[in-house]
Design goal:
This protein is of the alpha/beta class and about 220 residues long. The chain has a single domain, classed as Rossmann fold, CATH 3.40.50. The chain has a five-stranded mixed sheet with strand order 1-2-3-5-4, sandwiched between helices. The longest helix is centred in the first third of the chain and has 22 residues.
Length: about 220
């Protein structure tokens, strides 16, 4: 799913936009590994803020241009991509919803929680990966770096803000560190990770997975 707007892609640099899928694949695999406890072949799954659709393609195999690209890449997989302002307007409800680094691009977390609630079936789960939040020691640096390339405004949300918004909307809220269980490529001189310890800390502590379960 992508937000309805005149923005073509999230990243102003087309090459960087194309590279995001490969860079995020280990994170997506970890999200599925720790949050989907059973066979989901009969489940309906929503990827909120799908960019070019890589997460759903990976799950099946285990801005409008982005959605068009996702359609091109999906092949024969049973996946549909839509452009919409609200998940609730898609005309169906889902067993699972996922998002990866989407919430910091949304101005109103409470509105997002209400939208996800309307899109989930009772008992359905929304798994949201968040590393861009005000509780991360890297966020002040990252906010400046991301603003230089993002086509979308950025917003400052704390983990408490997110937890409260979903709890008050009627979700059971739980959280865990992403704790990426893979070797991470080290880029010497990275603007995002000036030190190797920054990268380790980010993927073991700062980046978290929320699980929001819709109550009946």
């Amino acid at each position: 799913m992508a937000r309805l707007s005149t923005i073509a892609t999230w990243n102003r640099n087309p090459a960087d936009e194309e590279a995001m899928g490969a860079a995020h694949a280990p994170i997506w695999r970890r999200m599925v590994e720790v949050s989907v406890p059973h066979d989901i072949r009969e489940s309906t799954v929503l990827d909120y803020g799908c960019n070019q659709g890589g997460f759903l393609r990976l799950l099946h195999d285990i801005a409008r241009e982005s959605v068009a690209r996702a359609e091109l890449l999906k092949g024969q997989r049973p996946i549909a991509y839509k452009v919409a302002d609200q998940a609730a307007t898609l005309g169906q409800t889902f067993d699972f919803a996922f998002s990866h680094e989407v919430i910091y691009l949304l101005p109103d977390v409470a509105e997002h929680a209400r939208d996800i609630k309307a899109a989930l079936r009772p008992g359905g789960s929304y798994i949201a990966a968040i590393g861009c939040h005000t509780d991360s020691s890297l966020w002040p640096r990252w906010r400046k770096l991301i603003a230089e390339t993002s086509s979308i405004p950025l917003y400052d949300h704390s983990l408490e803000d997110v937890s409260r918004a979903f709890a008050e909307t009627g979700f059971n809220v739980s959280v865990r560190p992403l704790a990426l269980n893979a070797f991470m490529h080290v880029t010497i001189g990275s603007a995002y990770f000036p030190k190797v310890t920054d990268q380790l800390r980010y993927y073991t502590a700062d980046k978290v997975l929320f699980r929001f379960v819709r109550q009946p």
